[in-house]
Each structure stands twice: as C-alpha cells, then as structure tokens.
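Sorry to interrupt, but I need a hand with the structure work. Could you write out one complete protein record for me, on any chain you like? Just paste the record in under my message, thanks.

. . .
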Amino acid sequence: MRQDLVKKIQAAIPGNSIGRYDLLPLFADAGLFSQIVRYISAEFIGKCEYIASPEATGWILGTALAKELGVGFIALRKGNKLPYPRETISSASYLDYSGDEKSLELVAGSLAAGSKVLIVDEWIETGASIRACMALLEREGCLISGLATIGINDNDDTKRWIDDGFVTFIGMDI
C-alpha cells in the first residue's frame, strides 16, 4: 500500500515548483488526501491526545489527522501573531531553511503537563522548525509521541530521524 501511495503522491506534485515541493495539490484531491491521512493516522491510534502543527501548511494535515484520530489540535503560531500579552506567550526560535530567524508560539499553560502530542507538518526540510516545535512543547511539559509528515528532504540529518523510528512519513525518493 505504501508504495502505491508514494507513486500517487509523486504524480500529484507539480514538477515546476521552485525551491521545494508544492504539496498543496495533494490536499485538493479528496481521495488521495484521505488515503494519506488514514495511512499516517494508523501509526498513532491511541498514542496521542493532541496534534500540534506549525503555521500554516502544517495545519491542513494536522487538523485532518486530529479529526481522524479524535484528538485535539494545537496550532503553533508564527512569531508575534498571537493576540495575547507577551508575558503569557511561550516561544521557540529557529533558523528556517533559507537562514531567516523565525519563531513559533503558543499560549503558555494551554496544555496540561504530561499531555501526549504528535507533531505534524507537511514537509521536513532541515528539521529546524520541527525542533522548535519540540522545544516549545517540551518546555510546556508535553510528551512528544512522534513526528508525522508527507515529505522529507533527503539529507543526512533528516535521515537520522527516520532511521531511529521516531518519524512516521510517506517518503518520496525525489
């Protein structure tokens, strides 16, 4: 099943995207999107209480997985977007794939310590934003159940995450 799904994903990705693969067309195909969500969610049944995803494209896959698993969804916002006083916000900074400094935020104390959280994003390029998600959630006392994604950049650092079994993904050898 996985190989068939990978072939469908590869066929749906536009060949002319620049800089990274555009996975948005995958979400427009209802059947393919459902297959992706079922495939990934099967690994996490009963293993998490929340899905957390970074803004913005990660929210699409994250909310679909939360619905499929019947768990809550935690939106990790880009820096300076939350409408709360700074002292009530927890944040984690990182350098993104282009070298720009960015941050992710959530309202401090919004999750109970010990909550089991699955982190979901549509793509892992360098792992920097995923590491920021992990740091932010761990600072709040959460337990990270794993990481789930559709696409992973084929670099040595990311391969280490895959090899240790911590990441569930639908990989694409592209």
The two ends are 19 Å apart (CA to CA).
